[in-house]
Amino acid sequence: MSILLIEAFYGGSHKQLADLLQEEIEECVLYTLPAKKWHWRARTAALYFMQTVPANANYRYLKGMKKLCNYGFSLPSSQLYLFGLDPFCLLKQRRLCISWILFASSVLNLTELIALRPDFGKLKKVLYFHENQLTYPVQKCQERDFQYGYNQILSCLVADIVVFNSAFNMESFLTSIGKFLKLIPDHRPKDLEKIIRPKCQVLHFPIRFPDVSRFMPEHKLAHLEKITGFRGNEDTYLFRCLPFQQKYRATGSLMKTSSSSPESGLCEAQSGLCTTQQERLQYPLTSLEKLNKSKASASTNQEVPCQEDKQHVTFNPCNLLSGTDYQQRPLHIVWPHRWEHDKDPESFFKVLLKLKEMDLPFHMSVLGETFTDVPDIFSEAKKALESSVLHWGYLPSKDDYFQALCMADVVISTAKHEFFGVAMIEAVYCGCYPLCPNALVYPEIFPAEYLYSTPEQLFKRLQNFCKRPDIVRKHLYKGEMDQFSWAALRGKFRSLLTTEPREDL
User: Fold this and answer.
1) Rounded to whole angstroms, what are the CA distances from 422 to 187, 204, 484?
2) Parallel, antiparallel, or unpaired: how do β-strands 362-366 and 124-129 relate?
3) Each residue's pLDDT tens digit, 203-212
């Protein structure tokens, strides 16, 4: 192993990235803490990892050993023995010197960890920012909140390379350092932005897009068939992709995409690269006949696919597929974000309640992870909007999650805090029409057509979509998603995690 991955908040996008790097990059070892009580992870994770990560003599990167290795490799092999140097030993030692890298997210106080574990000090240290605390929208500003942003600044000073998942994340952090440090009453440090900026770079969060064609509802597949010209028989579908979707083999491995038409933006199947679906569609009840059978089954107290438990309203295809034509079905709105105040669920539910007051038809799925403190608005909204709910709660199964996204029409963000937005990109990948604030990272990710500036604009867009859901169901996304795929970013991450340590050590 050569890469030490440390994740102090092992959940959500943090977990997704850590798992991806461990699976895709050779010789990684991962140490984590569960994604609970974020503030305590930021305060105490360094002490935990100081005791948990075992000591390893190979972590020690000695200046003398590097000079010896460099000097040895500048000599012919025949002369190495004259100096008592074994070339095979040198090769091994040189590899140990240059291969160890410490990769951690910015939740970890890297400064504390390096002080507590001097053997880590000589490693190349890469700090990855999923978010930054200098611009985090706290509910109540208190003096103790200062420590989180301050710790991230210190971690940047200790790190060799600082990586941000978006340009917005990087610039909002760097340009806020000066203002943030003015909170210090006196003896303020100077020019920290100038010191940190040369270490910084943007490397988008990599997403490993799965094959979701088996989850696509009939109307999406029919639309793709119409515009691509690909048709399968009654039992077989040729594999096809969304306008921005990577192709996968049946095993899930990535396939190369052909050149796309600049007008349609569609991926075209290459000869020999199409796969066949052994089953027409995995998603149930794609015809009125099957729907009627399901209702009959329910009336006789047989097994029913739509049940409710104490915590969640399960995904309900019976309600979703009501009607003989998909164009007659209500608009399906999905909100797939963390259940926390920085995602501004209040604004989202306020808009939906207004739609309900106007008797506009819509369905909704509220997904996303929950943590210790859940805003009260969720229980209130669930009660008020219960008749429109198809699913309510976190879906731990990736298949279930992507299935829910594939069945939705519109994905909404009302976030006050977003530096990348994995959930939004995944939903768009699954064919959802995105509506995002014209702020934060969203203008960097999505074309202007999908941005709104006020809650009133969001309401008007949804009002029109509720009246004419066919507008979004026939729409082809006009942005690019390939740039966020692991296939596109793999080489950059490998390069980041294989370069040599600092020369000044």
Assistant:
1) 40, 10, 9
2) unpaired
3) 999 999 888 8
**Under a CB-based contact definition with an 8 Å cutoff, are residues 30 and 7 in contact?**
yes
User: If we measure between CA atoms, which residue out of 414, 335, 340, 336 comes closest to residue 371?
Assistant: 340
Question: What are the DSSP calls for 294-314, one per residue?
Answer: HHHHHHTT---S--B-SS-BP
Class of residue 498 by CB neighbours under 10 A (exposed 0-12, middle 13-18, buried 19+):
middle
Q: By the 8 A CB rule, do 6 and 31 touch?
A: yes
pLDDT of residue 141: 61
Helices (H), 159-207: 167-174, 177-181, 192-196
Q: What global pTM score does this model have?
A: 0.74
**In the predicted model, what is the mean pLDDT of residues 302-318?**
40
pLDDT at 296: 40
Query: pLDDT class for 26, splitting at 50, 70, 90?
Result: confident
Only one residue has tokens 């164009």, namely 327
Domains of the chain: 3-61+100-207+489-496 (3.40.50.2000), 211-284 (no CATH), 308-482 (3.40.50.2000)
Distance between CA atoms of residues 24 and 361, nearest Å: 44
CB 137 within 8 A of CB 416: yes
* Cβ(58)–Cβ(68) below 8 Å: no
Query: What would the two tokens of residue 449 be?
Result: 């057509």
Task: pLDDT band for 502, please (50, 70, 90 cuts).
Answer: very low
